[in-house]
Amino acid sequence: MTRSELVTEIYAHFNRLKQTYRDLTVKRGFGALAFLPGGYEGTMDYDEVKWEYWTVSELDRCLFKGGVSESFRQSYLKELPVKSRRGIYVVIVTDSGDSARMELHLYRIGGLNLN
After folding, report:
1. 53-95 per-position pLDDT tens digit
2. Is 103 in contact with 93 (CB distance < 8 Å)?
3. Which residues pair with 91 in a beta bridge?
4. Given 14, 37, 51, 72, which is the most exposed site by the fewest CB atoms within 10 A?
5. Quick one: which of 103, 87, 89, 2 has its CA closest to 49?
6. 87-95 vs 31-35, strand pairing mode
7. What is the DSSP string of 16-80?
8. Inter-axis angle of helices 3-12 and 14-28, to 10 degrees?
């Protein structure tokens, strides 16, 4: 499955993911659903896709390690609690072709009437 196919599938399964996301934010705090290359690349069916839940601190560490500016990190991470009420935060990691780096694609996904 490609990143664009995964995004389409996330929208198609939004209601189920939103409830899971809400449960995880209550249990672990605000964060994002993280889809890593080994969890979706090569899958043919969404039910085979695997993901992780990254808390704000885990997401911040990843963004910091990737060289994202302090101002962007603070701004983005500050949005999570407020904007997650209407949607879910998703991080899709793709292979950049450089073994030392991965690319992060950040999304806030809502139901069709919420975006």
Report:
1. 999 899 888 888 878 889 988 888 887 776 666 788 899 998 7
2. yes
3. 34, 106
4. 72
5. 2
6. parallel
7. HHHHHHHHHHHHH-SEEEEE-HHHHTT-SSGGG---EEEEHHHHHHHHHHTT--HHHHHHHHHHH
8. 90
Could you count the other beta carbons within 10 Å of the beta carbon of residue 11? 15
**What is the total residue count of the chain?**
115
Tokens, residue 29:
């705090």
Q: Quick check: 53 and 23 in contact, CB under 8 A?
A: no
Alpha carbon distance 89, 70 (integer Å): 19
Work out the burial of residue 23: count CB atoms within 10 Å of its CB; fewer than 13 is exposed, 13-18 middle, 19 or more buried.
exposed
Q: Angle at Cα 39 formed by Cα 17 and Cα 115, nearest 5°?
A: 35
DSSP state of 98: -
